[in-house]
Amino acid sequence: MNATAELLEPELFEADFEAILPPVEEDRRGCELINGDWVEKPGMGAESGVVTTNVSSLLTVYVRKQRVGVIGSPEVGFRLFPDRPKHIRKPDVSFIDWKQLPDRRVPRGNVPFAPDLAVEVVSPNDEAEALETKLDEYLRAGVRLIWFVYPLTKNLWAYKPDGTAKLYRIADTLTGEDVLPGFTAIVSELFDGIE
Fold first, then answer.
1. Of 34, 68, 133, 190, whose CB neighbour count within 10 A is largest?
2. In a domain, 58, yes or no
3. What 3-state class would DSSP assign to 20?
């Protein structure tokens, strides 16, 4: 008897289903752990997804060439605060300098410290208050550079822990400042493929 036929048998009890199928809550790829509760990140949408890929690609080329660290995808979780183990954020793109990983080994699970660069690509599904909270946490955790990328206006805001912020418009040259020295990109490159 095949597995499908077995599922149809009336004597298959709830415990049997649990053994066959993983619980839904185990798939937490699109979730952040906020004060012990798994919270689903708002859906990104195609436009924001393309921008996220563009940002990641530009950074990856630079980081690989310079051999200065690693770039993380939206699945990489960071435990920003040592005293809050049940609080994990997942930036859309992240950079970890090898200086934070002297043995050059990336943790198998969540990263137990803040990234050097956190990038959030803002989509129409994001709520202003949630973005403000995330920015505040990144700043308090000591993320050295934070980019909030806005596909709708094709602007980027760069924030630093000292409270400074800089607006980059579509024709401006984005820099990696002291976090990624030598990295530059015209802001319009981040928006290739979208109108």
1. 190
2. yes
3. helix
In a domain, 7, yes or no: no
User: What is the distance between the alpha carbons of residues 120 and 130, in angstroms, rounded to a whole number?
Assistant: 12
- Domain harbouring 168, CATH code: 3.90.1570.10
Identify the DSSP state of 89.
B
Q: Is residue 51 part of a domain?
A: yes
Give the other-Cβ count within 10 Å of 10's Cβ.
5
Residue-range definition of the domain harbouring residue 157: 42-191
Are 48 and 190 within 8 A, CB to CB? no
User: From first to last of its 195 residues, what are the pLDDT tens digits of the chain?
Assistant: 444 444 443 443 333 333 333 343 445 667 767 777 677 766 667 899 999 999 999 999 999 999 999 999 999 999 999 888 888 999 999 999 999 998 999 999 899 999 999 999 998 888 999 999 999 999 999 999 999 999 999 999 999 999 899 999 999 999 999 999 999 999 999 999 997
**49: buried, middle or exposed (CB in 10 Å: 19+, 13-18, 0-12)?**
middle
Question: What is the value of pTM for the model shown?
Answer: 0.81
